[in-house]
Write a structure and sequence with these properties.
Layout (H helix, E strand, L loop, with lengths): L4 E5 L3 H12 L2 E7 L19 E8 L2 E7 L15 E3 L4 H12 L3 E7 L6 E6 L5 E6 L3
Parallel strand pairs: 1-4, 5-8
Antiparallel strand pairs: 2-3, 3-4, 6-7, 7-8
Length: 139
């Protein structure tokens, strides 16, 4: 069994996944648009944004991140709360680089610093509204 995060974006899934691929070393495996889906059942309202992403998948290291844009009117966007995506860089330098990339255009909620459990730990909500935890346990 595997476990991975599935994020819902407010019309920015494609931009977010391309940003993560470029700056976090991820590889986009799948990027399906709403307009590429089969037609809805007869009488159902059409999707309001056919160019949005209905399913995206990428690998980052040995993990998988999945996501989509909210699909109005079926799945409205709700801001992510009470959850963070955790990254575990292998070095202080990588933790600092990744934290800076995610903080660019976002909001730092806890600066990246030494804690009693990690050589670097910090939290940030990126420009796409995704909360991240950076936890580096290695010197």
């Amino acid at each position: 069994m595997k476990l991975n995060a599935y994020l819902t974006f407010n019309d920015s899934c494609e931009a977010a996944f391309k940003y993560y691929a470029e700056h976090l070393g991820g590889t986009i495996v799948d990027l399906m648009r709403v307009g590429d889906a089969p037609p809805m059942e007869e009488g159902a309202p059409p999707y309001s944004k056919p160019n949005n992403i209905m399913h995206a998948m990428m690998t980052i290291g040995d993990g998988t991140l999945m996501g989509s844009d909210a699909m109005e009117p079926y799945c409205p966007y709700v801001k992510l709360q009470g959850i963070s995506v955790a990254l575990h860089p292998d070095s202080v330098a990588e933790a600092e680089r990744v934290f800076a990339v995610l903080a660019d255009g976002g909001e730092v909620t806890m600066p990246l610093e030494r804690t009693f459990w990690a050589v670097r730990f910090g939290t940030v909500t990126d420009r796409f509204g995704v909360p991240w935890m950076i936890n580096c346990e290695k010197e």
